[in-house]
Amino acid sequence: MGEITLVTGGARSGKSAFAESLLDTKVNVNYIATNCIAQDEEMRIRILHHKKRRSKNWSTSETYLNVADVIEEKTVSAHLLDCATMLTTNFFFHLMKEQFDEDYEVIDKEIARLSEKEKEDIEAKLLIQWEKILVAAKHSSSHLIVVTNEVGLGIVPENSFSRWFRDVLGHVNQILGKEADKAYLVIAGIPMKIK
Length: 195
Prior knowledge:
The chain is α/β, with parallel strands linked by helices. It is 50% helix and 19% strand. The chain has helices at residues 15-21, 41-53, 67-73, 84-100, 104-112, 116-139, 160-179, and strands at 4-9, 29-33, 59-62, 78-82, 143-149, 182-187, 190-193. The protein has a seven-stranded mixed sheet with strand order 3-2-4-5-1-6-7, with helices on both faces. Helix 3 packs parallel to helix 6 and helix 6 (116-139) packs parallel to helix 7. The longest helix is centred in the middle third of the chain and has 24 residues, at 116-139. The mean pLDDT is 91. One of its GO terms (molecular function) is ATP binding. It catalyses: adenosylcob(III)inamide phosphate + GTP + H(+) = adenosylcob(III)inamide-GDP + diphosphate; adenosylcob(III)inamide + ATP = adenosylcob(III)inamide phosphate + ADP + H(+); adenosylcob(III)inamide + GTP = adenosylcob(III)inamide phosphate + GDP + H(+). Its EC number is 2.7.1.156, 2.7.7.62. Pfam families: CobU.
């Protein structure tokens, strides 16, 4: 049965570096990079920074789709999923593109019009993806480390959609926290074991 470790913290708290430090650089690790879409130059630089920091001994799966399959199919000592927030966000936009094509102007307009029922349906689809990932992790012999953003410590978003999506991310984090065998909160580069 696979072990699950959750590492949470705010933006630039040092959570990714800490999660990486939990793994020996020589073990067989698969890094599941969920922020694999550089939509601008700043994001491209962030992605490159993360890639440079990773051990050369690790393999990388750049995906936010079918992550449960990656966990089931790759025989490794550990998977490091970085991060849950980007996986959920990218999967949300994947669902929107399936429904409204690739036009982000149309998607933005449709998002603003989502009913409460539609939001509930979307959240259910997002949570099903996480359930699949957690089931795969538990049935795996690999250790799964999941990095996530602690979304409730910042400012309250100014619009209703952003508040709803922040809540969805919070629900994902609660599920991950409940299912994790160990959990750490990283603040200002200082990790604290909370479970």
